[in-house]
Amino acid sequence: MNSDEIKIKHIKNDLEFLRQRSEEVDFSKDDVKSYIDLLDKATKKFNLYAISPVQIGLPKRIIFFRNTNENMDKNFDDEYSVGEVMINPIIKEQIGETLFLEGCGSCYPFCSYVKRPYKILVEYYNELGEKKEETIEGFKATVFSHEFDHLNGILHMDVSNDILILDEKETREKRKYNPYQVISKDGKYERTVNIQENFKFNEKVNKMLEEYI
Ligand SMILES: [Zn+2]
């Protein structure tokens, strides 16, 4: 599949698809290399920090990191990608708290201020099927947490009480004045938003959906 053929699943038409729980990768059956190739192309095509395969119609538990730095300029550099993957990730521990204005290729033009952990201990498999453990810290933890939610059908609007409609330029402008913020570097992280209540989107988002897309 070339880049032109990759389509992004969007809440407007594919909300139910995006809501599913992605399934574990089976290294004996799945063509992991071809999935990674598609994810690499997709992040470049849609100028993303990272992606989960469910967003391009492939509900597998993989997180592909393209840019783990807060600087968004890299998202617009077609040559750039850290190209790191975490397959079948499991969260062991979440510490601290941060705040960032998040966007999502599957939810544009919705953005949300989301509180996420500062530090996450993760167990995962790399592309060769080797088991790894990593403590992810800082902005990369926010990127990971957003993508990990996708694997369970959760979108950033589900875990925020502060949702906005912003185009790309407005998002960049807002982030300039409200950059990634570390609230705390220690203490157990706990979500303060009730996902069950927000899961089908609250009334405010439903109204926005009708009006704007
Ligand atoms: Zn997303």
Task: Throw out a few tags for this protein.
alpha+beta; 28% helix; eight-stranded antiparallel β-sheet; binds zinc ion; Peptide Deformylase; 27% strand; 6 helices; 213 residues
Please explain how this structure is put together:
- It is a single chain.
- By secondary structure, the chain is of the alpha+beta class.
- It has one domain: Peptide Deformylase, CATH 3.90.45.
- It is 28% helix and 27% strand.
- The chain has helices at residues 11-18, 32-45, 139-151, 168-177, 195-198, 203-212; strands spanning 50-51, 62-65, 84-102, 110-116, 119-125, 131-137, 163-165, 181-188.
- The radius of gyration is 16 Å and the shape is globular.
- The two termini are 28 Å apart.
Separation, N- and C-terminal Cα atoms: 28 Å
Overall mean pLDDT: 93
Order of helices and strands: HHEEEEEEHEHEHH
Shape assignment? globular
Name of the CATH superfamily = Peptide deformylase
Total helices: the number is 6
CATH C-level class is: Alpha Beta
Summarize the biggest pleated sheet.
8 strands, antiparallel
Percent of residues in helices = 25-40%
Bound molecules: zinc ion
What's the CATH topology label? Peptide Deformylase
Unreliable residue stretches:
none
Quickly give the structural class: alpha+beta
Strand-residue proportion: 25-35%
